[in-house]
Amino acid sequence: MKKGLIIIVALSLTVLLAGGLVLASNRSPSGHPAGCSSCHVPHDAQGEMLWPYAPSMETTSGTQLSAGSALCYSCHDGTITPLGATFFEKDGSTHPIDVVPSSRVVIPEGFPLDPQGRITCASCHNPHRTAYYNYLRLPADNGELCVACHVNN
Amino acid sequence: MVVTASADEEVLYDIDGYVGGSLVMVLDDLPEGLGNISRPWAVATASDGRIYVLDSKDRVLIFSPEGEFIKAFGKNGRRAGEFREASALTIDRDDRVFVADSGNSRIQVFDHDGNYLYDIGEAPPRRGEAGPGQLKRVISLAISPDDLVYAVDIDAHRVHVFNLDGEFQFAFGEKGTGDGQLHFPVGIGFDPDGYVYVVNALNFRMEVFSPDGEFDYKFGRAGDTVGTFSRPKTIAFDLDGNLYVTDSMLNLIQILDWEGEYLGRIGGHSETPLFSQPFGIWIDANDTLFVADRGNDRIMVFDLFALD
């Protein structure tokens, strides 16, 4: 009886966890709650990847923004969403953005850099589909995300 | 500095032959001890020409018409006269200053000198849906020609309307993509006939309502070419009824007519854009345009003029 109960609880937890992951990765067809068209322009787009043209822009600290980061900041600047209200001033939240990684860092496959080889918001966040909190490409718990690049640290 | 450019040179200021302007003033400096203007949200002027700037340090900065700093009021907090994530400001015809104190779910009203007068709006319930008149996150404020306070609630995808005494009147808008539905509304303004224009930011269009909140028509689509929107944010009308729309992705202000036909732009495509994430704008009774150039921590002021 006790063994049966344990199995039922374990099965329930598995279903709940799997369900949670599915829900987390399917918030909208695009994966991002704002939808495809919030970032991609279907006709006449002048930027990369059907993004709107991004004029060159510097943060308050003088960092030249990549087109992808400028796209993120156009909502995540405290206006469309309060998430990221101060990222623009800080050149990122907890990690620098739009910088070329140092030679001590190994960028694994699946962590894209921009055409100039810079780390952008999208290097660590996948705005389309992810099972992890905050659209991270790996879970941040226990430093798993960090050590994916900072191998010796 | 003259705010025009020939067609073949780098476009810092582009007018497409319709509206021009001269850059007459830049506000970017504060007295010692106050730091800099920090990521300004909004700018408005009083009847005597005084300039009021709401910045991201939860304070209102008052300048003379000539740009001399006069005083500041407000700080971060929950008490009367204090703000949390304040993000919009407007001024009525009696020079009362309305501040959207978004984090405290209220609109605070001050006199011309920054003395607290009263609050508008209710906080939403801790659980459940916010109702009309209950403020989730007000991102823009405007006073209509018939003296009503319109508050754009971006998180509720709704516009709340109050009278000047703070009594709730009506609300309109709901989340969606259909006619009259809103998807992250931001800016709001009134044309000379009193029609209400709402920037439907992530529907990439302008939604136009009658003065009593009935949907009338819409225009605009997503894009980065003239007359289209990428990240449209706030609006203002000039004395001729032309519409000025900030776009914080394209870093420009587009000038459109009442049907959305493109007339021109200020800023935009350039190696060194004039603006960085422009947000709040204001046009005064003399056709002077004030722009909260948020990413550059400054207010830019232009005298507008018609071109032949």
Describe the structure concisely.
The complex is a heterodimer of chains A (153) and B (308). Chain A is mainly α and 153 residues long.
Describe the secondary structure blueprint for this structure.
The complex is a heterodimer of chains A (153) and B (308).
Chain A: H1 2-25, H2 67-73, H3 87-90, H4 121-124, H5 144-149
Chain B: E1 19-27, E2 42-45, E3 51-55, E4 59-63, E5 69-73, E6 88-91, E7 97-101, E8 106-110, E9 116-120, E10 138-143, E11 148-153, E12 158-163, E13 168-172, E14 185-190, E15 196-200, E16 205-209, E17 215-219, E18 232-237, E19 243-247, E20 252-256, E21 262-267, E22 278-283, E23 288-293, E24 298-306
Antiparallel strand pairs in B: 1-24, 2-3, 3-4, 4-5, 6-7, 7-8, 8-9, 10-11, 11-12, 12-13, 14-15, 15-16, 16-17, 18-19, 19-20, 20-21, 22-23, 23-24
Describe the structure.
The complex is a heterodimer of chains A (153) and B (308). Chain A has 153 residues and is mainly alpha-helical. In chain A, 29% of the residues lie in helices and 0% in strands. Chain A contains five helices and no strands. Chain A is globular and about 45 Å long. Chain A starts with a helix and ends with a helix. Chain B is mostly beta strands. Chain B is built from no helices and 24 strands. In chain B, the strands form six sheets. In chain B, strands 1-24-23-22 form a four-stranded antiparallel β-sheet, with no helix packed on it. Chain B is globular. Chain B starts with 18 loop residues before the first strand and ends with a strand. Residues 1-17 of chain B have low confidence and may be disordered. The A-B interface holds A 34-35, 37-38, 41-47, 52-60, 70-71, 73-75, 77-80, 82, 85, 88-89 and B 39, 56, 85, 87, 137, 139, 154, 184, 186, 201-202, 204, 222-225, 228, 230-231, 233, 248-251, 268-273, 276-277, 279, 294-295, 297.
